[in-house]
Each structure stands twice: as structure tokens, then as C-alpha cells.
Amino acid sequence: MNASLPAAEPVPSPQPRTDDERTLLVKVFGKDRPGITAGLFATLADFAVDVIDIEQMVTRGRITLCALITPPAGGSPGVEGALRATVHRWAEELKLQAEIISGTGDNRPRREGRSHVTVLGHPLTAAAVAALTTRITSAGGNIDRVFRLAKYPVTAVELAVSGVPTEELRAELAVEAATQRVDIAVVQAGLQRRAKRLVVMDVDSTLIQDEVIELFAAHAGCEAKVAEVTAAAMAGELDFAESLRARVALLAGLDASVTEKVRAEVRLTPGARTLIRTLQRLGFQVAIVSGGFTQVTDHLVEQLGLDFAAANTLEVVDGKFTGRVTGEIVDRAGKARWLARFAEQAKVPLEQTVAIGDGANDLDMLNAAGLGVAFNAKPVVRQAADTAVNVPFLDTVLYLLGITREEVEAADALDGTPTE
Ligand SMILES: [Mg+2]
Q1: Domain that holds residue 161
Q2: pLDDT single digits (tens) 278-293
Q3: Between 217 and which of 87, 139, 223, 298 could a Cys-Cys bridge form, CB atoms 3.0 to 4.6 Å apart?
Q4: 209 with 289, same domain?
């Protein structure tokens, strides 16, 4: 304590409300318009009641407003009757429905085993919601809250669930999500969800829509041959390092000046800029790690203002590709190694990292990260990752982190950036 400050007045410690104290739940429902909340509380204020809880939401122009209050001071039945009559009269004048329910205590405390469940649907069908919520209930979980995160480009809702360990709930819902063709993320609730973090992304078919080696191969006239080897490697049928050497060898003799053309041909995945811009605003660090080439990733780092990058480098001698790569190969194990290195440099614990990728060579990285997101991934990757996103919009990853579309758009509007 600072000795120069006068001794503080003793602060009476607040008494927690007991479960047997009487409370009143006031519920108002009807057409929304300005002033409803102010009107209800002005009506209640005349009875000198205390507010314990307020919940309000508006769905398509209809308001649901709930206020949990103490009974009127003095507690005589006459005064409480007057409160009820006054609230009903006020509601009738506004053509609202009101209900006042007597009871005791506050909301029940949420149970242990708290998770956030994000559901992405494109569309989100009632059948999918029925199947998922039935699973939550049968696993012993309780849905404490539901709200919408986004209506575009997908319908995203978040459910706060308690009563089931996160891992158990994740396993339970993963099966149902695949059946219902929706994407689901189940993460533990808690402060770490709001911490600043590191996001590490794969490049080919994740950050960008292309496979960079195929773009180079097109200029060398060996596209079909390379694509065939790439597909086998990404499906996990071929050792990545071996397949990389085999494909790069096909580029031997190609003029290195095609790099400029390839850079211009690269197409970012829809939502990539929105994702990165929003993460950066939140103070996240963003990295890319690629089995592709620094010839392209360096350009992406500059273009997008990324914090870290690792990729392979095509060797160039006398202005021509030699058909070899130089240095440490970034393969499946290499990607996980780079994730750990970036986390160390960013001073972010591994549990607070998010990795996003589509290929078999991303699996170690996805498993090592706090949250591994399989993005439009091959089946082998989808099955092994924590979470799979199967819509082609990279910014949907923001919803998995609990960020709403509205927040993204509001931040963009502030600095005049159009949201993709
Ligand atoms: Mg990839």
C-alpha cells in the first residue's frame, strides 16, 4: 500500500445473495422500438427495487427483455401487487406482453466443464441444430447461452455449454458435425480465449487458392506431372520431402525470371485479407509456413505485413532454377518445428497458438497447436484435426475464435476498409 495515501474507509464486504431470498423475474416480449428498456426500468424505479440481472435480445424486430429484481422495499403484498399492476399497465400501453414470475435466488451457477461450441452452416439447417443440441444433452451438457456470430458468408452461432469436459464434448460433436455437414469448433471457455495469440497458416490451398509449384510447373510445361505428385503427397500417400524433390527436379532449367509472373498469378483465398487484418488489429501475430517457396512467400509477407515466414527456397544458378532446393526442407515435421520456433519468438505459449492447414504435411503442426483448424482439408487431415472448416472463406476462422462479423465490419468501417 502507498504510505502517502490516507487510510481508506473500511469497505463493507458485499454479502452474496442467498438462494432462499425472494426475487421477481420480469419478462417483456413484443415489437421492439426505442425506449422499451428505459421505460421498464423507470416503471420499476418507482418501487425502489434492486436489479440482480438483465438479459435482452432483439430477433427480427422482436424484443425479449428479462429483468431479475428484488421485491419492492418494505415487502408488503400490497406494494408488490401495485408493482405488478403498474408494469402490466405500462406494457399494455406499448402493446407488449409482460410476465412477472415470483421465485427465489439468482440464476443457478454454471456447472463445471465449460466450453464454447461454434457451429458454422452454409446453410445451417434446423435438422443440424436439432441433432447437435440433442448430442449435447445426451452427453450430460447444458446449453447456457446461444447467440449469432455471423450471418454472412456463413451462418455462425455460438453456444455456451457446461457440464461436459471439453474433450469429451468435442469428440461427441465431431461425429455429428460430419453427418450433418456443418463445421464445429469446441474450445475450452476461459480467459486464455481472449489472450493475444499467434496464428500460423499453411500457404498453398490455405492462404492462397493455388499450389505454387503447379504455377511454376505451368511455365515449365510439366504441370500435369507435378499436379499428380502433389495430390498424392497431400493425401499422405507419399513422403513429402521425397515428393518435393521429385517435383522441383522437373523445374530444372526454367528461367528464374518467371517468379515475377508466378507472384502475379497467386490468388488469395476469399476472406484472407479480412482474417489477417482483424487478427493484427487484435494484436495477434501472424505467420506462414509453407512447403512451397520463399520466392513467393517473401512477397506475401511484404504484401500482407506478416510477422514470420518459413518456406523452401528454389536454388538459382546463372538465372535458372537448378531443380534443387537449398537449406532445411520445410516438410511435415519441419512445419511443426517452425510453429514452435515462431511461438518462442512471439513469446506465446504453444497452447495459445492456432494453426490452419489443408494437407497431410500440416498434420503435425495442427496437432501441436492449441487449436488446429483443418481448412477445406483432405479427409485424412479433417479426421485428425480439432476442428474442420469446409467452407471456402478463410475469415470464418475468426468466428471460431469468438469474433463476430459485426465486430469485424465495425472495425473496418472505422478506418474505411471495405470488408471482403
Ligand atoms: Mg496446403
Answers
A1: 115-189
A2: 999 999 999 999 999 9
A3: 223
A4: yes
